[in-house]
Amino acid sequence: MFSGSFVIFTHFAQSAFLFIQYIQNLQNNKESSRPWLDRVKDPELTIGRPGPSLSVPSTVPRPSYQASQSDSSRRAAARGRRSFVSRINYLLMRTAIVVMLSLLLVPLATGEDKTDLFDVKAAHRFANLALACVHKEYPNKISHTLNGDADVAPPRNLTPAFYGCYDWHSSVHGHWLLARLIRTFPDAEFVQSARDALGQSLTSAKINQEAAYLRAEGRTSFERPYGLAWLLQLVAELREWDDPQGREMADNLRPLEQAALERLMVWLPKLANPIRIGEHDQTAFALGLMLDYARATDNQKFVALVTSKARQFYFKDRTCPLAYEPSGEDFLSPCLGEADLMRRVLPPQDFAVWLRAFLPQIPASASDSWMPPAVSPDPSDPKLAHLDGLNLSRAWMLEGIGAGLPKGDKRLPAIQATAQAHRRAGLAAVTGGHYEGGHWLGSFAVYLVTRRGITTNHVGSQQ
Prior knowledge:
Glycosyltransferase
């Protein structure tokens, strides 16, 4: 970001310097022309002196030398005063320009961007988004298969742990957000409220009922793969949290974790082709979360399954059609999601070669024009608001892709510049102004700013 801001600063400084020089030249020209103008305006100064021809009757008496000298002195003094005032005005104007440019450009030159800042204050704002929805039952969009009259029930009875935040998967990653922020800022003011909310939801009784719901007849595809992948991410977060409450909640989640794993271990081997869309069913993003979970929990059987499916689905892919992105309701990039998965699977040198064939559009220069951020036409529309989330997920995917490349790769400046552009656009949209986006965008923002899923050794443990 600093390099881009420095370029902007340089352009502004050059423009300001040229503008000041232009004003100074105008002032100098005006002052140099003033004696000639004074002579034109005053016939007395033109008599007997070179200058423009003026018709002055010969009968007009010439003023005495003493009177002429006195008038000339007064006019010279007046011109001096005008010149002094003009210079003062010029200096004041120049000072104002410098001050305004300084106020505008210092934040750019220092890389300061308030929307891009992640500190405890920003964490508090994101935590409040989740706290406002994890136990907010309505509005609610349930994905529910009815097997009989007994299945007609409110969300809090169907899925008593994850009934808030508009839908099941958003409730799950809303709980993940709270756990993540507690671990990141353990002494923040919001921590006790976040702990209370997690404790209220993740009880043994409620999780057992969630597991029974998932295993019930007709729910084989429930929240598959997106919601189940986020559930495993929540499990991984709690397992990594060295805290008594965290360990208790992780233990409580085991029945639901096991039910989700059973569903996925049966489904993935049968899945013949990847799902290449920009919404919930995309396999690339879900496989990335699953692989992070499997490594964090040392589930080597699941690691092997996910890795093999990633290679089967994507290793031979070439020239992803970036020009087709985004679709109108995307919140995930099909192309970047795939690349972000494969950097988890391939060593850096192999990934660099694969990426060159898969995304040849990435330039070898610090340009972000090859993938501009998306713009949501209506953040209050639950589907059109997806595009705000797309900017956030693109940003973390680009950062992940960059982390998977060898140091010194010539594509890194373009990847980093584009990630920063999407980061700024995405975080600026996380306002909570509309529940349609507020119930889930906070989780995407936290996943980005805490760098969850960025590998420390490319194919090893996750942060």
